[in-house]
Specification:
By secondary structure, the protein is mainly alpha-helical. Helices cover about 75% and strands about 0% of the residues. Helix 1 crosses helix 8 and helix 3 packs antiparallel against helix 4.
Amino acid sequence: MNKFIKPLIILGSTALLASCAMVSEKIATKENIAKLPEPIKSMVLQLRAEQKAVEAKYTQGTKTMLRAYSIIAEAIGMKKEAAILQAEANALKVGSSMGEARKALSRSKGAISAVRDKISKSKGVKVASASKFAQGVQVKNQAYIIQLTLATDASLTAANAIQKAKGAGPLEMAILTTQLDPLFFIVRDVPKFLAQERAFNEACKNYAKEQKISLPPMNLPTPKLQMNF
């Protein structure tokens, strides 16, 4: 298959399944799940448990990333943005849902963009705190690895579930898809954010070199996702 066509088909299938999940969420009740035949029933119950773990890891990664940007913002004298980002990070607690984490990240986009721009355009501008800048970059790298692992695991789990569900009926597939919806979001959106982080990482390294700031090793690998669905 043409190397350009295949990714489009994959993404189209992902979007369609995610859309179906939104429509069919109301039918994924305990009663309906209990009536499912094996092995679909066990698969749905397992995915439901894994969904909670996925949400917890996504929230942890988001909270850590927001905290990192807050530290970097403070390090380069952006006190307003630092306060906004820290407040959003503090609002995410243990048990916060993926939806809450996504909203916090969305509300922080302006502040994150401002920090990225300031770093990219700060040639010749002295850093306010070199130690804080190094700390912020290190925390940012930790958040990157959390989300990298999350995206890789989510893609593998989703691909395995879709493969095992071949031959499932419409109702069974609809219920299964509701449990896959968070995984589809992660596979679709998290790699985009990680690509932006790798670009920002280069800007941080250039800024640190100019300011003579010693940074920890920064090997940020590209996620290798299992996309066979």
